[in-house]
Amino acid sequence: xxxxxPCQRALFSPNDSLSLFKSVSxxxxxxxxxxxxxxxxxxxxxxxxxxxxxxxxxxxxxNVTPSIEGLxxxxxxxxxxxxxxxxxxxxxxxFPESEYTRAEFxxxxxxxxxxxxSLHFPKDHPGRSKTDTYYLNKDYVLRTHxxxxxxxxxxxxxxxxxLVAADVYRRDAIDRTHYPVFHQMEGGRWWSxxxxxxxxxxxxxxxxxxxxxxxxxxxxxxxxxxFHDGNPIQQGQDPAVCIAITNHLKRTLExxxxxxxxxxxxxxxxxxxxxxxxxxxxxxxxxxxxSWEMExxxxxxxLEIFGCGVTHQEIFAxxxxxxxxxxxxxxxxxxxxxxxxxVPDIRLFWxxxxxxxxxxxxxVVSQFEKFSKYPGTYRDIAFWLKQxxxxxxxxxxxxxxxxxxxxxDLVEDAQQIDKFTHPKTGRTSLCYRIRFQSMxxxxxxxxxxxxxxxxxxGLTDKFGVELR
Length: 468
Ligand code: DAH
Fold this sequence. Notes:
This protein is α+β, with helices and mostly antiparallel strands. The protein is built from 14 helices and 15 strands. It has 2 domains: 6-341, Bira Bifunctional Protein, Domain 2 (BirA Bifunctional Protein, domain 2); 377-467, Alpha-Beta Plaits, CATH 3.30.70. The longest helix has 24 residues, at 239-262. The chain starts with 19 loop residues before the first helix and ends with a strand.
């Protein structure tokens, strides 16, 4: 069902400052790095052309591949006409500039401390594993989320709120909705009890801020409790303070989502006059407690938009302000942009094809017009596994890694199409079908054959398989 039709309306002034952070940098609090030595800036903070191998000494943790390193240099959000930039700007524009500093983090490399430890991630959290995260070496990763900048923002930014949008990296399969790089937005807001006489006054201060937020006209389904055993309040936090923070958080995000969706024109007569529906559900994140997710009913389905919660006190302590309290949220941009712009494949956001990029102008949500795909082509790869190995011991993802390294975005997908075990020798044979297709041009046969050869060689070198 198609709900959207082109909406050629500018949703914000294209002159909005892209980086308020820069203009307020003179106000940034200088914090001595003593006592905070773990955040020390051994990493670059400005983009550089130096290859990772020259900056980060490789060790047994290193698993960033050259194609991923290449993607860290693309910086899609710096193109103001890119749909992801427009979505970012629309969301940013809902937050008052005087209250929320827009911070920029153009470098995707962060320390393990920033990405995990500073955020109260348990040592054995699965997100830390090499199979999920790209490590530069044991101390540095490609950020897996924009939350990696929370402590820095809560520490350095003097307005009570901040917003960040940036590219993030996770090891993943490649298909229509998954890509190892995507974009997230992060926001945070704090209050300090400094100079406030009583808890009652503190709560009144937070509530007064909440009252300033326009009440959105949307249907809100909220059956969550303020906190409970499964979604607990933090030890030592005053329940009324926790509730006041939560009210501010929920009102803020409801206002944002209603503002963003209000600008989307709905085509379907039956749905046209229905108020936007959202719902709150309990969630769990290492860095917030209690935590929630907000979902929007859109196109017949509940679409998850925000993860959020009451910021864990450890994060404020790590930022050097243990007395503060507040909230944070995170949001993935691609899925929302796919819905709003009608982009059917996440890989299109990475396309350099003018037929994609020239369709969009800054600040405007317009419907993506499909252009004909360049022709694709199949190649099959069949091989015998080593004696004694079974199909279960060969992982599709290992093949995917080799395919991606050899052919990058020229591969649309790779699928197992056959497996059998020889009745006499007992050896197992697998066959994969690889579909080559470029978003930018027609591939030449010879070129595909060469890619295929590189993949075949990679498979024999890495897994000792015998090609058939
Ligand atoms: N970092 C989370 C993720 O990548 C998203 C998130 C959830 C961010 C809750 C937050 C938050 O700041 O409070 O899944």
